[in-house]
Fold this protein.
Amino acid sequence: MSKSKTLSLLIAGVWLAATAALAQAAPTAALNAKFGVCFSCHGVDGHAILPTYPNLAGQNKDYLVQTLKEFRDGTRPNPIMGPMAKPLSNTDIDQIAMYFADLKPGKK
Ligand code: HEC
């Protein structure tokens, strides 16, 4: 193998490792586009921007799914979260619940 080929493989490896490390903390562009509004209050790392907003990092996925459906159908009425949950599909809810559940809690 040529030297330059070895070098480019090495660079690719480092790049992959860096991307994998980033992926743990940063959401994909698609997630950001869809759920950026959620992150503006609950934090992209699941730690809320205000002490009166709940932290969601590491919360149970099933709890997050259930509570978002309750906000959506009005079983758990809330003037902020009701309108936030209204446009979410079941797939959206699954996706964002999985995202927050996977984050490390308590690292603020
Ligand atoms: C303007 C700020 C704001 C935005 C934007 C927002 N939330 Fe919330 N969220 C809150 C507040 C405040 C509560 C607490 C509501 C209550 O008192 O029940 C909450 C509660 C929640 C809860 C329940 C937490 C628990 O412990 O029961 C979940 C889950 C949640 N939000 C997810 C989301 C998702 C997903 C989005 C985006 C679609 C979002 N939020 C957008 C402020 C916000």
Remarks:
- The longest helix spans residues 3-25.
- Confidence is low (pLDDT under 50) at residues 18-23.
- Residues 10 and 59 are 38 Å apart (CA to CA).
- The chain has one domain: 27-102.
